[in-house]
Specification:
This protein is mainly alpha-helical. Helix content is 63%, strand content 0%.
Length: 223
Amino acid sequence: MTVPAAEPDVPATDSDTATGTDSDVRLRLVEALAATVAEKGYAATTIADIVARAHVSRRTFYEQFSDKYACLVACHEIVGSRMLGAIEIASNESADPAGLIERSARALLHALAAQPNLTYTHFVAMHANGPASVPRREVQDRLAKKLQEIATRVQTVNRQVVVPSDALATAVVGGIAELIVRSVEHDEDLESIAPTVTELVSGVLVRGRRTERPARSQRPESA
């Protein structure tokens, strides 16, 4: 994996308006990165672009991140944490599989729709093989584990629920990611794909919802 080199550091300027905690400043920088990537792509985005949009100095940037790539990794981590948080809250409301899956799908998509630039950067700008393919996969692995954890918890009170294998959980998360990518690329309302996401997850997690392969018809014997 090729990691972009860091731009050289320069002293802070009087235009630095960084205020708040380190986490506040980091979030401003990540949001500035994502907004710029959404406009011109990751390769064309520079640290000068990021600090100008965030209204901070280069020194402030380098106090938080070693380079542009580190800021991008933080973007993936933030998106992943927000997705996991939304799913966790929604999944704690009920053990009813149908309602739980629908609420979790809607909560996930609502969280992503609320941060369009971060969502675009995580799912679309870096969707192809790029410098952030590893952290993107790590986020998907965390989501797959969360899917298994929720299924395991709900299964204790509802035997309709099936806990997916590692491979199947990964496939489900990958399928959801592809639906999100297509929706964002076509500038569609993310929350409009909630029924499709619900159907996909239900087909894997809820016993009896999986589509059975139709029996092969018997060829009539020749006279």
